[in-house]
Amino acid sequence: MNNNIPDSPPSNTCSSEILVRQISFRDTTTPNTSVSSNNNSTPTPKRRKVLKKFVLVQDYPSQSEDSEWTRIDSKGNNSIWSHFLEGKKDRSILKCTNCNNVYRYNRREARYNSEPAELHLRDDCTNPPDYFHGNLKDERIIKEICKKKLDKYRDLKQYIKTQSFFDIAVGLILESRLSINWVESFTAKTLWSTMALIPTENNSKPEQIFKPNKSNMSNFIRTKSKDINYFWRSEIASSAHILNEKTFTNRKTLLVSLTKRLYALDNVTFMSLVFDHWSNHKMSNYLGVLLVTYDEEEGKQIPFLVKMDRSDSHKTIDISQQLGEIFNKFDGLRTVTVGMSTDNAANMLKVPKELSRTGLLGTRFLGHVPCLLHSANIMNSTMFDMVEEDSLGFVDSELKSKLLELAAMKYQLNSDGSRNEILKQDIFTEYLLSNNSQLSSESADIGGIFSFITGDIILKKNNQLALNIKSSSVNQLLYRELCVEFGKMNGEEPLAIKTYSKTRWLSALDVVLRLRELKPVLMELNREPSLGVFFDEEDFVLMDDLTDILSPFRSLCEMLSNDTCTLKNTLPLLISYKDKIDKIFVEKSKSSNLTHRHLPVFIRFRRKMDKYYKKYVSMDICLLSSYLNIAFVDSSVFIEQFPRENTEIKKSDHVISVVSQKLTDILIPFLNISYYPIKDSDTEDMIGISSHAGRVYNAEDYSSEGQEEKNLEFEEEFDEFSIKDDLQEQIRLELEQYRLRALSLVKEYSNEVLSKSKKRWSPFDRQVQMIVGADNIFWSRHKREFPLLSLANKLFHCIPSTSIHAERLFSLAAQIFDKRKSQLSDQMFEDLCIIRSFLLRIKLGSINITDCTLNDALRLTKELNLE
């Protein structure tokens, strides 16, 4: 390899150079007037000549001694050149101190032109300095971002940019499941050449295009990931700054101060964390962490992946340490985090407690909500397990988590009916099969352990029958003939027997429904000696009863999987599901049919459901959030949970009193308002603030100039709980008005929800739709009537009721990291997952996210989608 520096820059066709200047393609047939003037300007010939000479010297030895380089002396306050070193022997050679790459650029031809160096630090440098995006440690920059958040009338078109070839290439790679090497394929080169032939101006020659290849494509992906990282850092830091602002007031101006504060909090992005483990096809474990917030305009939650880190340990302490790194990475995340949602694994349930113990969760953290879907799925599993959970003794959370993964792989069949080969190579399988295994000593064979996980009669028979049919061509032919005879065909193919998977929540219901549909075929197969008897009449009676219980679970899953379903709907949906199951249980218990010999199974199910019902009801955030659901405001559960001591007080008034007290304790840290420590003589003539009830203030009518200096005088005596009594009274008044308003409109809005859809819903489906839909309509139309309750409503909406967001993004991760991309590095895999998650919600290639806020990006994306 030739390590000598060439005397002249290599030609533009040489593969060993990378131009720093990226000229984006722009179609002038539909000119984009919203692009900033800097992007529209065309470089002069002299400037273009200078830019061409700033090229990367890839063959230059990176391990050069410091004595070969010297610092660059620049005039003025320009700090761009401070990030570069100049060669002592050849001063046309520059070295970036951030990424250690070496470039050829004759700085003396354009002494004061630092744009090539700036473009390198901004676009190409793998470790750029913070101030190119804005140093978020500088309070002035944070205040500028906050000012931008509060200005809702600024022109957002300034943040629109033209998509480059790289943006198009990233979109094609992610959406078409291509590898990064695709950009160098013949098809890709043809695409770039075709696009480059389109002139940028009328009657002008095409511009020289910087076309993607594997190397610069990887750099672009890394840079985009850093842009997203800065975007979240600025969004979180600015939201935390607004939350931490302190306000002093007195009783006369309390409502005015509340109105101004609520206006400011309306621009804060509250976050919830959703995290879970994911295993790819190589059984490598990753911890996926998502930030979930709420879009009030769309009325739905929006999740974004921020971390997909390798995690070989399922222990609580290790998960907490990885989350701690994220809290340290995003300054202010501790302040804006209001909730968490995970599955019901024991190791996951302990993580919030561990984070609270280490002080990573602040006073504004409302609580952790176990995944309601997982809870309901655990209830359903009691109807299938042959072996009680404690039959194998104590099994810790880490071992149980691995057992679940192993069970999922065991029941995964290939197209030819064979088992998945990954099971034979799994280290944990070898551990279970070894003679030294503690579990193998308690169970004679591996089948006992699988019975512990998926040891059911119906589902085990189903999977075995599917294997017997798929593994024999004779059985396949027989099965096809019977399906044709009984009309059980899907087009030209017979209806397939679905295999059960523990990790799919609706898998059991799908299996049972398919078996019931194939009943005549399966009963005829019992006569075949080669297959034997699998399902008899008693099995189908059991399937009928299981379907009665599992069918409502499908409706519950579909609603909980919707982005419009949040923490507010958790308890109402669970209670509705419980009431439905209770009715079924009563019908089964009263039945005189002797075939219902499996009644103990339903008793186990009821016990498990009662256990989870008590768990969710005992959580204050579930109770309080459900009270703000108009379909649940008069539920008897509040009277049960908030018993009154004084029987002279109405039950509804007592519930409102307790709810107002608890909501006050929740909202005080967010409002961050204190009375002045000096006595206000004017307040002696005031009786509370009841005279201001129902009055609406406009925060924009009040100026905050001069308030900051006045607040600094009393900052040491700030007491946010000094307004507690008056704030509680105001919340109580809003709750009384809200209850009357909700009871009068719930029927109207419920009918409106049902009238929007032409589907034929079952009674339980209709109830589920009304619980979520009617409440969303109410708060979208009456938000301004209840400003304090609207803040609480927004906080509760930011907390997911399930961890379904993580499961969805894991499906996308499986598309990115498939068997064809086994050489993908962990860093590139994480970057692609983060970009893919971001592209689902925001047009990354058309919006300059480093200069705008989250609300700006969402609004611009909606506008661009309408064009």
UniProtKB/TrEMBL annotation:
Location within or outside the cell: Nucleus
MF term (GO), any: protein dimerization activity
This protein's UniProt keywords: Metal-binding, Nucleus, Zinc, Zinc-finger
GO CC, alphabetical: nucleus
Stretches the record annotates as Disordered: 25-47
Domain HAT C-terminal dimerisation per the UniProt entry, residue ranges: 778-837
Pfam families: Dimer_Tnp_hAT
Principal subcellular localization: nucleus
Biased composition (Low complexity): 28-44
Listed PANTHER family: ZINC FINGER BED DOMAIN-CONTAINING PROTEIN 39, ZINC FINGER BED DOMAIN-CONTAINING PROTEIN 4
Name of the protein: HAT C-terminal dimerisation domain-containing protein
Organism: Naumovozyma castellii (Yeast)
